[in-house]
Amino acid sequence: MKNHLKKIISAMLILSLSALALTGCGKETSATGSASATSTPAAGASSEKPITIAIVQPMSHSSLDQIRQTIISELKASGRNIKIETGNANGDTSALTTILSNYQAEGVDLVVPIATSTAQSAKAVFEGTSTPIVFAAVSDPVAAGLTGDDCSSITGVSNSIPAAEIVKLISHFQPDYKKIGFVYTSSETNSVSTITAAKAYCDENKIAYEEATISNVSELQTAVESLINKGVDALYTGNDNTIASAMSTYTDVAYATGIPVYCGADSMVADGGFATVGVNYVQLGKQVAAMILKVLDGTAPADLPYETLSNYAQYVNLQAAGKLNLKLTDDMLKGYDVLVEADGTSHFGK
User: Fold this and answer.
1) Burial classification of residue 8, based on how many CB atoms lie within 10 Å of its CB (0-12 exposed, 13-18 middle, 19 or more buried)
2) 108 within 8 A of 52, measured Cβ to Cβ
3) CATH topology of domain 163-280+311-340
4) What distance in Å separates the CA atoms of residue 150 and residue 67, rounded to the nearest whole number?
5) Phi, psi for residue 114 in degrees, rounded to 5
6) Residue ranges of domains in the chain
7) Distance CA 81, CA 347 (A)
8) Per-residue pLDDT tens over the stretch 53-111
9) Greatest extent of the chain over all pairs of C-alpha atoms, in Å
10) What CATH code is assigned to 29-159+282-303?
């Protein structure tokens, strides 16, 4: 009888320890950056092991957050049994490798790196594996080394903006402008490629411009002031994550002297920029999610050439126009959606 009781007690202890072990599953932490896990099975989904997708971004700001949120929303709506894990380097580029390496060791089924630096890190970390990589918001995939024979597991959606559209945007609202000021982060391949193309267009068309680069947010105010002192009539920044995270600093300096700030994304206009013909990040997120679902259905990334945006956003910020004392006619506003009303009401994300 005593032996029988011992066996029962031992069995109960084993079960208790097993239950405790299971309660720790599904929680993701990272020594650098931050990460979280979200299960998104559809109602009535099977109990089969979910597909694990890791979405990683270099920092938080409106554009990148909107891409992530849209991808998650689209994947949830797909009805798939998917577990989504999210990682954020919080502005520390060196943390990207650590976050991605953790996901590689974990054995995630697919990786979604947002922005060029993240995509390049993902390529390096997952090199030699068969894990599909579907990038989001890479301005120049070729220059970033994300195409070619060594990228058979990589595809995604580019957020490149035609250089001619940038200049047309400025001349549309300021037909008498004389000189453009380009502000960008020297370490961001995506931003450099956009401005390089814009400068080439200006050279070909004899359009005057000045440029200023920064390496971090603390240099932004000085960079903008230097361009204003050089007599620019308009400022332009493309898909630049560092500057997008500090739009208030950018616009405060520029608007104090009446210089409009044109941007490469609707989110940057929502955060204070004046106008954009650029990236609609909801549209981009939807295209990325559609590519992910194709990969999950069995299409190899090598058979899915990277895509560009199917259409561009045209937005204007009337509150910014008021600060700049710009008189916008009905003809000027034709074809542009008002993203921020004169009273500050925002339609971003609605």
Assistant:
1) exposed
2) yes
3) Rossmann fold (3.40.50)
4) 26
5) -100, 125
6) 29-159+282-303, 163-280+311-340
7) 32
8) 999 999 998 889 999 999 999 999 999 999 999 999 999 989 999 999 999 999 999 99
9) 99
10) 3.40.50.2300
